[in-house]
Structure formats: structure tokens, C-alpha cells
């Protein structure tokens, strides 16, 4: 793969990861959860062939408990 193509593929990977972050942010917001540290990990996007990682970050106990509630509702089929 030539350099120009590698750069195009790398940029597409980063764009896809950025889109995933926005989708996660919107999805979490839709169930009343905000992860303040949710972001694209900048280190994983460095270099010629980045492998973007999404950093879900840290959250407080209330947010963690809300995530537990949402997951339990989903698991039990009562996610209305």
C-alpha cells in the first residue's frame, strides 16, 4: 500500500472512531448517562498507521450505578 493510501485509510479509521464516540455520547445521554471523560484516545491515533481506541474514561459512583441500572433493564427486557 503506498503512502497516500495509508494516510487515507488512517484518516478514515480516525473518522470512524470519532463517529463512534459521538454515537456513544448520544446513546448514553438517551438513557440518562453522561461519561465526562468519553473521548478518542489521542495516543492511539498517533503514527503512520493509527489504531484508534475509544477511552470511556472515569465516572463517579452515581454514573456507575446508573450504568448498572440501564444494563439490568436491558438484560431483563424492560428497557422501555
From TrEMBL:
Protein name: Secreted protein
Lineage of source species: Bacteria, Bacillati, Actinomycetota, Actinomycetes, Kitasatosporales
Amino acid at each position: 500500500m503506498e503512502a497516500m493510501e495509508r494516510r487515507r485509510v488512517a484518516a478514515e479509521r480516525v473518522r470512524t472512531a470519532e463517529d463512534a464516540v459521538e454515537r456513544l455520547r448520544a446513546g448514553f445521554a438517551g438513557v440518562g448517562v453522561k461519561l465526562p471523560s468519553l473521548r478518542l484516545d489521542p495516543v492511539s491515533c498517533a503514527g503512520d498507521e493509527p489504531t484508534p481506541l475509544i477511552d470511556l474514561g472515569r465516572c463517579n459512583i452515581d454514573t456507575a450505578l446508573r450504568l448498572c441500572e440501564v444494563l439490568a433493564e436491558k438484560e431483563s427486557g424492560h428497557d422501555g
